[in-house]
Design a protein that fits this description.
The protein is of the alpha/beta class. It has one domain: Aldolase class I (TIM Barrel), CATH 3.20.20. It has 5 helices and 9 strands; from the N terminus they run βββαβαβββαβαβα. Strands 3-1-2-4-5-6-7-8-9 form a 9-stranded mixed beta sheet. Strand 4, helix 2 and strand 5 form a beta-alpha-beta unit. The longest helix is centred in the last third of the chain and has 13 residues. The protein is globular.
């Protein structure tokens, strides 16, 4: 079996997206092809000796300890790795699986039964040139598209993407204020003014625990 570079496997409360507040097992893979200015998982960006090489069976054995049927594959960037076998095994065992991806990797070959949460990079991230907009063709209305917004320029950029690609019928749209950069009330006002069916999301885990706390 293949071995995957694992940064951590943890059981916590889902802090983001339409399932925020639910217990979730997070499988954080190590290694990311992007370098966002506001990245909050810097420790998982590079492959290093601190990562654990684990087979799919070893990962599933860890997951099964938590008695929770909701699993999120995250990173780093999970699609830097071949996660199809792990994804399929989990879904075949009746797990709900979400894949949180940075929007720059091809999702066409990802298991269609998994829920994709695709992060489209706005200009403030410094990585917007790497957005792979062809991925929109492979999304369903079970999937989610996330924009992290650090200011009005990011918001306008995100709206142009939403309008230009007619995204609202294709997937759930999530706008998140960059933590400690944009006030949530400012983003809320812009969303209400837009008149669009966009979900404002906060990083719930950063309000429950210290924003820099690991393992949650």
């Amino acid at each position: 079996m293949a071995k995957l570079n694992i940064s951590e496997i943890l059981f916590s409360i889902q802090g983001e997206g339409s399932r925020a507040g639910l217990p979730c097992v997070f499988v954080r893979l190590q290694g990311c092809n992007l370098d966002c200015t506001w990245c909050d998982t810097i420790y998982a960006k590079k492959l290093d000796i601190k990562s654990r090489l684990m087979t799919e069976d070893e990962i599933i054995s860890e997951i099964e300890k938590f008695k929770c049927k909701f699993v999120q594959l995250t990173g780093g960037e999970p699609l830097e790795h071949d996660i199809n076998c792990l994804t399929g095994l989990l879904i075949d065992k009746d797990y709900t699986v979400t894949i949180e991806t940075n929007g720059s990797k091809d999702i066409s070959k990802a298991d269609r039964r998994a829920i994709k949460i695709m992060d489209i990079k706005c200009p403030s991230s410094g990585m917007s040139e790497y957005n792979l907009f062809q991925n929109f063709d492979y999304l369903t209305n079970n999937d989610e598209i996330k924009f992290v917004i650090a200011g009005k320029n990011d918001f306008d950029y995100a709206l142009n993407i939403v309008y230009g690609y007619n995204l609202i019928p294709k997937a759930q749209i999530l706008f998140s204020p960059a933590f400690n950069i944009l006030k949530p009330e400012e983003l809320a006002a812009w969303i209400l003014e837009s008149g669009l069916n966009i979900r404002l999301q906060l990083q719930l885990h950063k309000f429950i625990w210290h924003p820099n706390k690991r393992g949650v």
